[in-house]
Amino acid sequence: MLLQGQGVTIERPHRTLGVAAAAILASVAGVLAIALIVKATTWPVSLTQFVAIVSAAVLIVLAIVFAFWAYACYTLHYTVARNGLTIAWGTIRHYIPMERIEGLYAGRGEDRPDLRGLSWPGLRVGRALVHGKEVLFYSTHRSPEEIVYVRTPSATYAVSPQDPARFMAEVERFRQSAKPGGSETVQRDIVGSHPIWADRVAQLLALAAIVINLGLWGYVFAVYQDLSPQITIEFPPLGEITDVHSRSELLVIPAAALAVLAVNLVAGLAFQWRERAATYLLLSGSVFLQLLFWVSAGIAVANA
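The structure corresponding to this sequence follows.
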């Protein structure tokens, strides 16, 4: 679909197939997650129940990811204006000034790019080598002839307007009156531009804390059935408080650990915008506290 007005042309590629494929996968993952949760709630506390809950959580994450990809495919469009070409995909905007475009050429039937990224019928987003050069794909093409390559000094982009010839003519028309100046930029929204995506140290610390917490839940669920009805709980994180409780109180330990982890993760993400050292302190503290909760659970099980 081509929309024109006030010197701006918005080209929306064919998106129905790509959106439908991602939406179906998201729906399947969501339905399976719900079914698994409903089934798992009827089981006793055990390692099997823990595995089922974790599997459901993974399916929920997959459903969210595929739903986002469906949304991103639906929002995919190319805006041609006097100043430049904008490629919009989900939370990302690639802006290419007109004077930076060195040339456009249509795809050929013999082109068979080996895409690294998202690739299913109706959606091709990622990187691929075409004629020995790396190309960024933001396309929904079903055949190579539907592709238009946009070459600049720093990158080559692959797009798939519904009418490639008309799209190329429109870009060429604006190129004729382009003024020098400007540079290629990538714009992201507040989520896509968060520093966490480029901070490997913060990612590793957060991942370590999450894995330790998951391991704690798995350990408690695995030993739960073998515990006596009354157990002694020593809670090092809260000052070595010792008391006798029902074994169901053992579940409070990983739950408290999860609450602490959630607070620290949210605070760490908030601080990272301005103070990265504070983020590292919070996330490393999360790892330490998760280990303390592990000690507490181990003592409780040993004294059961």
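The longest helix spans residues 47-75.
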